[in-house]
Structure formats: structure tokens, C-alpha cells
Amino acid sequence: MTTPDPEHGRLLAAFARTVAERGYPQTSPRDVADAAGLSEADFHARYRDLDDCFAALYRHSAALLRARVDAAFRAAGSDWRAGFSAALASALTAVAESPAHARACVLDVSAAGPGVQRERLRLLEGMRGMLRGPGPGALPDVVRDAIIGGIYGTVYSRVAAGRTQELPGLAPALAKFALDYFAISDAVSM
Predict the structure, then answer these.
(1) Domain that includes residue 45, residue range
(2) What is the pTM of this model?
(3) Residue 1 lies inside a defined structural domain of this protein
(4) Residue 34 to residues 10, 54, 106, 138, 172: CA-CA distances in angstroms?
């Protein structure tokens, strides 16, 4: 996915950096524009307010993440469990590669307005689809949501501690955590 214009991309990158440095509540449109080397008028020509900029960053980041995760899942072939494991590893690596975006999209998202919260929920609901699993033994939504919550909580704690670089190494344990629910479900349905 490409950004519509170079200034849009500069503003999104500046937003992520500024929020990582200051936190979302302490960030202003002026701060973002200054960090991008643009005027506040340039900021407001593209975004209604800071939440609108945050929603744009979240949509952009989520689209990039989804494309990367989907490619990893497909590359694993017909083995659903291998696909899920590869997709999870890809997602954790992507988060680790961009600590500033991780801080904004994982930590500071809670301080944002309803538009940003909707983007976050869309991303998390999309993750639920990856946990559909093979065959008729589908897990109930509440269980899939609990698995996502457990993985998200682990990511959140690493990002909050400034330890995003550890995330890729957690992929095997987190994949096992998630996939073990399917083994239990398969055993119960037999």
C-alpha cells in the first residue's frame, strides 16, 4: 500500500515517532508537522485533527501488517497450523521492526478517540478469522477472542517495557499456546 502523497507519508512517520517520544496525550498537530518538516496548515489540509491522523496511521499500518501476515500464511501451503505459525511469526517480526509504530498502535491507541478504536477493533476482528481453524471443530468466538487477547497482552507488555526486539523469539511459544486450543477442541469433538 502506498501513501497518497509524499507529505502524507512524512506526516504518518512523524506522527509515529512523535507519539513514541512523547506519548499520544502530549502530542499536538504542531508537534507532528514540525517533526515532518511541514507546516501545521499542511497537517490540517490532510487531517481533521490528531485522531484523524492516528486513524490514518492505524489503517496504513494494519494494511501493511495484514498483507505481510496473509503472505506468510499462504506461503505455508495447505497445512493450516504451519500457516498460522508463520503468520504469527511474521506479525511479531513486523512489530519488532518498528518500535515507534508499535508504541503508537499498541500502547497509545487506548488514549485515542472512537475512530482509532474502530480501526483497532477491525484489526482484532480480522485476527479472529485467522483462528477459524481447519475442519468442523471451530472454536467459539469467545475462545478465539481470549487467544487473541492473550497474544495481544504479551505483545503489549513487551512494547511497554521497550523490549519489542524479543517478540519474534516468542512466536513458537505463542503459536503453541494458540494451537493447543485446537488440539483440545479436536479431542473433545471426537
Answers:
(1) 6-189
(2) 0.88
(3) no
(4) 11, 16, 24, 50, 41
